[in-house]
Amino acid sequence: MSRVPAKVFVLKFRPSSHSDDYTMIAAYKDEQTAEKVGKVLRKLVEDMKKRDDYDIDWNPEETTINVDRKQVWFEVYTAGYLDDVESVLRKVAAPENVECYKDYQELTVRATVPKGLTPETAMIVLDREEAEAIKWFNEECGKPTVTDCEDGKHQVFEWHYEGEGISDNSTLYVGFEFSLSDHKNWEVE
Amino acid sequence: MKGPVENLLSEIAEMVAKELDDHIRDVRQMLPQLDVDEAEYKRLLLSEVVNDVMIEAQFAFPPHKSYSPDEVKTKALNIFRKKFERDKRLYSE
After folding, report:
1. Which of A71, A82, B12, B26 has most Cβ atoms within 10 angstroms of its Cβ?
2. Which residues in B lie closer than 8 A to residue A54 (C-beta atoms)?
3. Considering the domain boundaries, does residue A5 fall inside one?
């Protein structure tokens, strides 16, 4: 983040040559405020459709705006040209929180482990990669919910993850590449 | 102690703040549509403008000197006008 004489935006986007799916999520004090912000955000996008002097690399037709209770969601494929969006998110009302994710994902991650293990003991008993992955999910998502399997011998740790993209078809990127093919007892949906 | 980049950004911030004061009636017409107060609106717009010229300001002094400080100020003023006009369109009744 940059330092300037005036206090700056919390998020500062530095456009790059590489585009990603960006998701901005701003949380407000109540649903009415979120509705109000969502309305102005739609007005901004309509304004962008009529003008060519905005410094953006995305098509205003290809944006998604949703208001979900107290949250406003804005999604677009861009190399980081989001200053006008952030301006609206912060000026129409003071957000309690603004977060920005590249390739936002919501995942349910399950690891089947021998019954009786806690997340702490699992990190000692299981192989190093599984231990590291469990540690990562515990830190990012909190302790897992634990459900017994019908076979009476196993249990399932389950985490719900929301944030930057960490999963492709067969790999979890959790500080290292954790192969799901090599760990059949793990699943992601 | 401030370096030349910080001094230039400070000058730009003061220049933009003065521009905002010169258009205070327009600012006050927007405020009913906003939940932030006048001071916060000014701070946010100011930071938008300063952020947008940050890189040029860094390259306006040796060893780079890709821009002159006056060019950076002119760019900042143009950005301010563009963003202020945007806000007037968005935050009108």
Report:
1. B12
2. 86
3. no
Domain ranges of chain B: 4-90
User: Which chain B residues are Cβ-neighbours of A47 within 8 angstroms?
Assistant: 86, 89-90
Minimal Cα distance from B13: which residue of A? A6
Residue ending a domain, among A65, A85, A102, is A102
Contact A143/B at CB under 8 A: no
Tokens of A109: 């991650």
Say if residue A139 is in the same domain as residue A85: no
The model's confidence at residue A5, banded by pLDDT at 50, 70 and 90, is: very low
Predicted ipTM of the assembly? 0.89
- Report the 10 Å Cβ neighbour count for A96: 12
In a domain, A87, yes or no: yes
- Decide: residue B92, CB within 10 A, 0-12 exposed, 13-18 middle, 19+ buried: exposed
Q: Is residue A70 domain-resident?
A: yes
Question: Which chain A residues are within 8 Å of B90, Cβ to Cβ?
Answer: 40, 43-44, 47, 88
Does residue A78 fall inside a structural domain?
Answer: yes
Contact B89/A at CB under 8 A: yes
pLDDT band at A10 (very low <50, low <70, confident <90, very high): very low
A160 and A88 in a common domain? no
Query: So what's the pLDDT on residue A8?
Result: 44
Domain span at residue A167 reads: 105-188
pTM for the model: 0.80
* 3-state class percentages of chain A: helix first, strand second, coil last, to nearest 5: 30, 30, 40
| Four-residue CA torsion sign, A39, A40, A44, A49 | positive
